[in-house]
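Reproducibility note. Readers wishing to regenerate the assembly model reported in the main text can use the exact inputs given here. Chain order matters: entities are listed in the order in which they were concatenated for prediction.
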Amino acid sequence: MSEIEVPESHPRYQSLLTRHRIEDGVKKGITSTQGLIAQGRGEAFDYLLGERTIPSADRAERVAAAHLLLAEQPVLSVNGNVAALVPEELVELAEVTDADLEVNLFNRTEERIHAIVDHLHEHGASEVKGTAADERIPGLDHERAKVDSDGIYAADVVLVPLEDGDRAEALAAMGKTELVIDLNPLSRSQQASTVPIIDNAIRAIPAITTHARVLQRASSTLEEMRTIIDEFDREAILADAERVIRNGSD
Amino acid sequence: MSEIEVPESHPRYQSLLTRHRIEDGVKKGITSTQGLIAQGRGEAFDYLLGERTIPSADRAERVAAAHLLLAEQPVLSVNGNVAALVPEELVELAEVTDADLEVNLFNRTEERIHAIVDHLHEHGASEVKGTAADERIPGLDHERAKVDSDGIYAADVVLVPLEDGDRAEALAAMGKTELVIDLNPLSRSQQASTVPIIDNAIRAIPAITTHARVLQRASSTLEEMRTIIDEFDREAILADAERVIRNGSD
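Running the prediction on these inputs yields the following C-alpha cells for the assembly.
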C-alpha cells in the first residue's frame, strides 16, 4: 500500500494515483485551472497511445538522459502539474544528472511559486530556483518571460514538461537544447523541441533517471554519449508517435 | 463584442469563450477538479476531430432532436461542465423540446447542485430538477445513483453530456434511450449510448435545438420522425468518428 488505499498491482493504480496527486495539488494551491485542463488533454493523448511508453519514446528518454549528463548547466523546469504528479521523481532526476530545479509557471503568481517550492522541499529538494526571476526570456511578454539569471536563463539544456508553445519557441530561439515532455506530438512545443519526449511525465521522468543511471554505470565515455545524441532522429520520433496515435498500434 | 473582449469573428473566439466560461464556472463553484480534467480530455479529441462538427455528428444531432421531440418524458441531464459552458443553450433546448433540466453530478455535493441550479435560473430556466434526489438508479453506489423520481428516473429519453461510464451503462440497463455527448467515441458512455453524439457540447447543444426547430417547422409527422430514428446506424457513427480521429480527415 502507498499513499492511496490501492495496491500497486491494481490495473488502475497509475490512474488512481494520478487523480489523487492532482486533487492534492489543487488543495495545496500547486495546480491551476489551466493545468487541470492540460492534464486532461494529456490523458486523452495518453489513452490513444495505450497509456504506455512506446519504444520510440523510450529512445528519446535515453537521448534526453545523455543530454542532461553532457550539459554544462542543465535545468529541469517545473510547473504545477509535474510538481503535483512527480515531485520526488524530479528531485531524484536532478540529483542523478546534477541539474537544477527551477519553478517556471505559465500563470505565474507568487503564491503558487512558493507553494511549489515548498512542495519540492517536502519531497527532498535542497535548492529550488525560480523565485529570483531576475532575467527575461527575449520575445515574451513580461510575466511569462521571467526566469532566474543563474537558472533557465543561463542553462544550455532545459527539460520542459508540458510547456506553453510561445515559451518553448522562445527558449529554442535562445539556442537552448530543449527536452520537451508533451503527449501531443503536433503541439507547438514539440515542434520547437530538440528532443520530443511523447510520454506521460509520470512515466517519462523516472525513465530518464533510469537511463541516466545506466549510462553512468556503464562508464559511457563522452564520445559514446555524443554518438547517442548525434544518431537521434527527432523527425522519426515525432512521426512514430503520431502514427501510433492515429493507428492505435506500433 | 460579447461577454469576452474579443469579436466573434476572431479565429480563437470559441476557444477563448470556452476558457472564460470554465474559469467563471470554477469561481462560481460549478465546475469540479475532475470536470476540468474531463474538459481537457474533450479538447484533445476535439483537436483531433478538427474542432468542428463532422457530418456524421450532425446526423446524430438530428436523430437526437427527433428522439427528444417524440419522447413522453425527455430529460436533459446537466453536469458542471455543460452548466458552465452552455447554460442558455440548455435552457433553449429544454424549451424547444419540452424537456426537463435535471442537475446530476458525478461528484455530488449539495453546494455544487445548488450553485448549478442558481446558474441555470440566472440563464432563464424556470424549473430545474435534481435537488429532490428521491430515487436511485439501480446498480450504482449510493451517491452516484441519486436522481429525481419525476425526472431522470421516470424519463424515457435522457440527454447526457460527458457521462461517467458506470452511470451511462446503468441508465442503458434501465431501458432508457440515451443520447450521449462525448468526444471520445471509444468511451464506455458512447459504447452504452443509443445515439452517440461525438461533438463538443458547445456546438452540439445549439445544433440539436436547430434540428428540433426545423423538424417542428416542417410539421414532420410522427411517422417521419420515427423513420429518421429507425434509419439511424449508431455503429456507423461511432466508426466514422474514430476514423476521422485516427486519420485526421473525412
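We highlight two features of this model. The domain at 55-247 of chain B is CATH 3.40.50.12640 (Rossmann fold). The mean pLDDT of chain B is 92.
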